[in-house]
Amino acid sequence: MKVPSVIRRVIVTLAGPALLLGGAAVSAGSASAATSDVGWARLAHLSPNTPAVDVYLYSFGNQSAKLVLRHVGYGAVSPYQPLGAGDYTVAMRAAGAAATTKPVLSATLAVTAGHAYTVAGLGPESGLRLQVLDDQLTTPSGKALVRVVQASLRQHVVSVTYGANAVVSHLAFASVSSYQAVEPETAAVRITGGSDTVASTVRFAAGTVHTLVVLDGAKGLAVDNITDAAGSAVMPAGGAGTGFGGTAPRVPSPLPWLLLIGTGSLAAIAGGLRLRRPARQRA
Fold it and tell me: Engineered SS bond to 258: which of 16, 78, 111, 197, CB 3.0-4.6 Å?
């Protein structure tokens, strides 16, 4: 199935139940109750030379799509979607393809209550795969957690440091590091690949969990700092990442993906080394 070239600006049509959440966070009591039978999942399109896609989420064994996310482009990471515990199928089709078209890729997702997952499209177009990542929601006492997703095809290997901490060394393209516990401090994050380096001073607060996504930007490496969670008393944040260096599209809505019927723009992140605060980050 032939699909158009990669687009950097993506228009997302969110189709699904017209359920609007009343706030960005929930109280500790509400969160505890919610996790009794609910998990969370989000989508990430992290294949640099794979065109935009439509993604369908099905309850296992049900041919009617539970949720649909359209025209998802490279660099997009959705906010978390709350899902009832159980088995699901994620199917990826070329953008604009009929829902009856055979998926380009599919994967199964087993959601456990209280757990969070990222379903990521990784690798080059010729070897594209859907990988289910287990996301961490809590940290060791007094620490922050950070991991790296290497989604840059231009620089096949990258290394990341945070202050004096080596978060990951020589991480290959389409690989995901384990979470690394770091001290909660304001320090320089430096990503190096070949002769390309991007850096900025950031703060990882105690009790927060972060995913750094290394991307191909317009002017070299680009990095999105995504806050996965900000303490056990709130729902996982997920959501739009913020970048430093290069260009990377992002999902602007602060509401969980696919819950609001409407249309949004995935705007390109400006170049430079300035780190912007995540839209969903909580202190």
Answer: 16
